[in-house]
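Help wanted!
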Amino acid sequence: MKAAYINEPGPPENIIVGDLPVPEPTSTQVLVQVAATDVNPIDTYIRSGAIAMQLPRPYIVGCDLAGTVKKLGADARRFRAGDRVWGSNQGLMGRQGTFAEYAAVDESWLYPIPAGVSDEAAAACSLVGITAYLGLVRDAKLQSGELLFINGGTGGVGSMVVQMARAIGARVITTAGTDDKVAACRELGADLAINYKTEDVAARVKEFAPKGVNLWWETLREPNFDQTVELLAPRGRMVLMAGRDARPPFPVGPFYVKDCRLFGFAMFNATPEQQRAAAADINLWLAGGQLKPRIDRVLPLAETAAAHRLQEESTVGRSGTLAGKIVVRP
Ligand SMILES: NC(=O)c1ccc[n+]([C@@H]2O[C@H](COP(=O)([O-])OP(=O)(O)OC[C@H]3O[C@@H](n4cnc5c(N)ncnc54)[C@H](OP(=O)(O)O)[C@@H]3O)[C@@H](O)[C@H]2O)c1
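Answered by r_m:
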C-alpha cells in the first residue's frame, strides 16, 4: 500500500511517500481502507521530534481517519466489513498512524459515519471535534445560556468549539485575523466575531459582556492571563490546551477572589470510553447539520510533506494561511 512515513523525526522532508505492507488486523483490530485523513498540529510536533513519543519504525504519520472496514481481527465485534467508520487518536502512544491506504485500528477507537456525511467531513472533525467535546462537555460542562469566548473561530479546534457551543445553546464570542474570517465566524454561528488584528478585543468583549464571560477557551500558545481573568465572570472557567512551552505570569489574587476554575487537558489522555461518548454526540450533530467541519483544502497523499509545512507555518508560525483543516486523500 502507499503510505506517508518517517524513519527518523525531523523536518517535513523526512516524510517518505512509498510502499509499505498492508497491515494484518489482530485481535480486536479492524482493517480500514482509508478514504480521507487530515493534518493536525500534533502530527507536525511528532514528526519534528518536538514531542518525544515512542514511535513504531517506520512510523506512518497522522492521527485521524475515515474510510471503510475491509477485514476484522479474530476478536473484533463492533463492526462488519463494508461499514463506514471514522476515528482518531492513532499515531500516538506507540500506535501506528493513518496516512496510508489501509490502517489496522483497534475497534475501540472507531465510530460509524452517519449516512449523508462525507469521508472528508468525518476525517476533518475527528481529533478537533473530540478535543472540543472533551473541553466543553466532559470538563467545563458548558450550559445552555452561558457565554463562551474562544480565540480563532475559524481554526481547527476553534471552529468546532464555536459550533458545538451553539449546539449546546451557549452564546459565543470569537476572534479571527481577517475580515473574511470574521464573516466566516458569524456564519458558523458566533454572536460576536472580532478582528483581533484591527480591533481592541478586550474592549469589545467588555462592551458585549459587562458581567463577564462564563467560559474562556484559550487556543493561543501564549495565553494572557491578566486580561483573561479580568474578562471572566464570577465563577468563570477557563480551558487551557495549547502551548507546551508557555510559562506566562498568572494573576493568582484576581483569579481566586472571583471563585474561578481552570481546566487543562490533552485529548490523547482521554479513555476510549470518553472518546466514544464524544463521538456519539458529534455524530448526532454531524447528521443534524449543526456541525459542519471547515475544510481549507484537500491534498493527495503525495503532498503530505507540503501539508505539514503549511500546517506548521499557519499554527506555529502564525501565518494565518489556513482557515480550517487540510484533508489528505490516500
Ligand atoms: N490539548 C489538546 O488535546 C489539543 C488538541 C488539538 C489542538 N491542540 C493545540 O491547540 C492549538 C490550536 O490547534 P488548531 O488545530 O485549532 O490550530 P489552527 O487550526 O492553526 O488554529 C489556530 C487559530 O489561532 C488563531 N490565532 C493565532 N494567533 C492569534 C491571536 N494573536 N489572537 C487570536 N487568535 C489567534 C488563528 O486565527 P487566524 O487564522 O484568524 O489568524 C487560528 O484560528 C495548537 O497549538 C494545537 O497544538 C491541543
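OP: Thanks! One thing I noticed: The chain is about 30% helix and 25% strand.
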